[in-house]
Write a structure and sequence with these properties.
Rossmann fold, 2 domains
């Protein structure tokens, strides 16, 4: 029931925001919203945590991470009841415990195959992998997907980043950069021009590295980068029996992250 005070409150809005309140276009991927200015950006890794981890992991979750490396995303999983980590390299090599800290509810396994035999059957209810499967041939990705089927509980949410050269090329062509929006916040025209030139040169050097990545999939450090492709990965997961929620959750502008569920 509305009171006179509440009615007066609603009436007060009629004198403001002529034309409708507008704080920037939320569909403009790289544009800085007017009300946020220089504070209107979130890094891609943090966006991945917000989109792929936090809504699905809590104190009751038994989580699995494929390829934790040093443990960057593992730290975002520490709120789970337990965390299983599988990696081709040892924890010592990755300096995993030094970065993550001693965590009694985290188990780390150096793997030598794709069988996942150390995992409990019907014991995992969340799985995450980023920056790992892109370095594994498609046959290995498929082997993981098949071996993990009996390890995952029904309803387990899974997020896998894979390499997709087509999306990577689009990223290079579109050149999505925050630099123009950031530079637009600078008041002096001569300074805007100077910083724009410097930013453009820095971006071009980075894009050259990305182009080389496509041209020579065997990286300079000896790590291969395999083109699994979004469509092929999705088709493979469906063939095994997984339900694909989103072929790409869309938070990584360079590579797809597939969201799928074990029915």
């Amino acid at each position: 029931m509305s009171t006179p005070v509440l009615k007066d409150h609603l009436t007060s809005f009629r004198q403001i925001w002529k034309g409708g309140f507008h704080a920037g276009d939320p569909l403009d991927r790289m544009g800085s919203a007017a009300s946020w200015g220089l504070f209107g950006y979130v890094g891609v890794p943090y966006a991945i945590v917000l989109r792929c981890i936090r809504p699905y992991v809590d104190e009751s979750t038994v989580a699995l991470e494929i390829g934790p490396g040093r443990g960057a995303y593992t730290r975002a999983l520490l709120g789970a009841a337990s965390v299983w980590c599988l990696d081709a390299l040892s924890a010592e090599h990755n300096a995993f415990w030094k970065y993550v800290g001693e965590q009694p509810h985290v188990q780390y396994f150096e793997v030598h195959d794709f069988e996942c035999a150390m995992l409990p059957d019907d014991g995992i209810d969340y799985m995450f992998s980023y920056g790992t499967l892109c370095h594994i041939p498609f046959e290995g990705i498929e082997a993981y997907a098949a071996a993990l089927w009996p390890k995952l509980r029904s309803g387990a949410n899974c997020f896998w980043m894979v390499a997709d050269y087509e999306k990577y090329r689009r990223f290079i062509e579109e050149r999505p950069s925050v630099a123009p929006a950031l530079v637009s916040q600078i008041g002096r025209p001569w300074l805007r021009r100077l910083i724009s030139r410097v930013a453009s040169q820095v971006e071009e050097r980075q894009l050259d590295k990305y182009r080389a990545h496509i041209a020579a999939p065997e990286g300079p450090d000896g790590s291969w980068w395999y083109d699994a492709g979004t469509s092929r990965t999705v088709a493979m997961l469906k063939d095994i029996g997984y339900r694909v929620i989103e072929p790409d959750v869309g938070v990584d502008p360079r590579s797809p992250i597939v969201h799928f569920v074990r029915p």
